[in-house]
Write a structure and sequence with these properties.
Blueprint: H1 5-13, E1 33-35, E2 38-44, E3 89-92, E4 109-116, E5 125-131, E6 137-142, E7 145-151, E8 157-161, E9 171-178, E10 203-209, E11 213-220, H2 226-232, E12 234-243, E13 250-256, E14 261-267, E15 271-279, E16 292-298, E17 301-307, E18 312-315, E19 318-321, E20 324-325, E21 328-333, E22 336-337, E23 342-343, H3 347-359, E24 364-367, H4 374-383, E25 386-390, H5 402-419, E26 425-432, H6 438-454, E27 459-465, E28 467-468, E29 473-476, E30 487-490, E31 507-510, E32 516-520, H7 539-553, E33 560-563, E34 571-572, E35 585-586, H8 599-613
Parallel strand pairs: 21-24, 21-33, 24-25, 25-26, 26-27, 27-30, 29-31, 30-32, 32-33
Antiparallel strand pairs: 1-10, 2-3, 2-4, 4-9, 5-8, 5-10, 6-7, 6-9, 11-12, 12-15, 13-14, 13-16, 16-17, 18-19, 19-20, 22-23, 28-29, 34-35
Amino acid sequence: MKKSFFNLLLLMITSVPASSQEDLIVNIDGRETISLNGTWNYIIDPYETGFYNYRYKERDENDPEAYWNRPVVKKKTDRVEHGYQAPYTLQVPGDWNSQRDVFKYYEGSVWYQREFDTQDLAENERAYLYFGAVNYEAHVYLNGKKLGSHKGGFTPFNFHIPKKILKSENNFLVVKVDNKRHAQEIPTLNTDWWNFGGITRDVKLVVVPETFISQYELHLSQDQNIQQAKEKESFELEGRIQLNRAAKQSEVRVEIPELKLTKSFPITGDELSFNFEVKNLDLWSPDNPKLYDIVFSLNGNQINDKIGFRKIETSGKDILLNGENIFLRGISIHEEIAQDKRRAYSREDAEQLFGYVQDLNANMVRLAHYPHNENMTKVADSLGILVWSEIPVYWTIDFESEKVLDKAKQQLKEMVIRDRNKVSVIIWSVGNETPVSPTRNQFMKSLIDQAKVLDDTRLVSAALEVGYNEEGINHIDDPLGEYTDIVSVNEYLGWYGGLPDAAQSAQWEVAYNKPLFFSETGAGAKAGYHAEKENRWSEEYQEWFYKEQIAMMKRMPENYSGMSPWILTDFRSPRRNHPVYQEGWNRKGLIGNEGNKKKAFYILQNYYNELENQ
Ligand code: GCB
């Protein structure tokens, strides 16, 4: 792929931290895998007894009391103080909080265990253990040996399994999962969502050739003028292939069967960049969510994917999709199925959430506040819904710390690598409502720089805050706006300050000639509670709020390019403790926790219908 000099320079300046894992394997569903989902045993271990001995030293690998070792009782006098068996079981994938009462508020260590059989690996094969996500810290052991550890609750990772460790039968797999919050982690101690713990996404055993394509990218070249390309019906695609290790004189192929196109490239190292022309390309858009079957292969070993092609860019105050102005009719989403009080993880969950999004007539979602599971971006690709994807750099993380910055960069990198072939993703967000200071500005800017180095085909933003002054003018002037491609702000006029009609006299001043996006606005209401509109928590208050907000949006400066109100459905939050109206729920959903649409849903839906028909 062609990288500009500027990007190369940035690459040198913004070093990407090394993680303890091997390079991430992308498109896991396009590979030969064995699912390790299902019923796992668990031990709940708040004192981390399985990890530390009584002197609080990490246990030796062979310590029989280490919980990664199989508990063996040979004779009746043997003392064994741990074990894995029913009824102590949890479903994987899934958060632990929603599965058993004992876990509802639990924050600490839990050991997961299961056994599995597999066939012997051939001479030229390698195996990996892949985790879609584990919240927050995972230590993975197979047959008593540590494969590795990973931090970060919302991104995938994988570990190579050395051949001598993997057996054909009764493999003893143990994962220590710890979801304790820490000041030096991302997110930090304080958030407004439930800290769902556990192995929350798929677990797979992946079998690949000794040398294989671990990562790839294929997209429209960002440098070409899209209007001219459309007129000429000739587009330039560019891509990159990453192998797990250097190959000896091999051949990489990229095929797009529908376009009758096959390209072969020789490869000798572990990386290859290429570009080529295609004719008659049907561009992806919300109106035409066209995906092409793509086959990547190395020496005949194939990976299948479905990839769409589109160009996203900004021009002055406009967002352009395939060269045309687009308004983002968005909605924010947490990764939850409210009816079950649990994390969402499956394709069916994604379809349920996107079903609501389509009912609303939205064309965009903000996946807040962390990378959601891959089914979300896959379904978005297939439905033609644009996506904002974010890392949990949220509120007051430790901006002073280089180590914390490295952790943020690692999560950003994992998010981008997993989803950079997802055509629906148009915006990488590097954080939410972080408080302005020189150190924070520098921290956030280096994340923006890194996002651009990892992927120069998308927009980068962050949800910022509004500055107010005495004259009642709302200022959008966070210094970070200088570096983001679109200026996004969260705004709660009429909920956290004043009443909804305060919006009528609100004035706005925007310091940047860039697209302006309202990444949040919203008010709480308990579904089914009806009263005069002045009553907080009534559906009528929330409806009033949305009416006033929309009227105000219509008066926004002309760089107003979209919104993603807060939020699609009610969601769990330990911060929300009103005994009648909240009971542990953030009630700003347009849909209640039992799936009922509140009155405000229809107000926003009407506005989006109007905008679509303009
Ligand atoms: C915000 C945050 C979001 C909260 C929301 C609220 O500004 O970005 O995470 O949940 O407000 O409901 O207060």
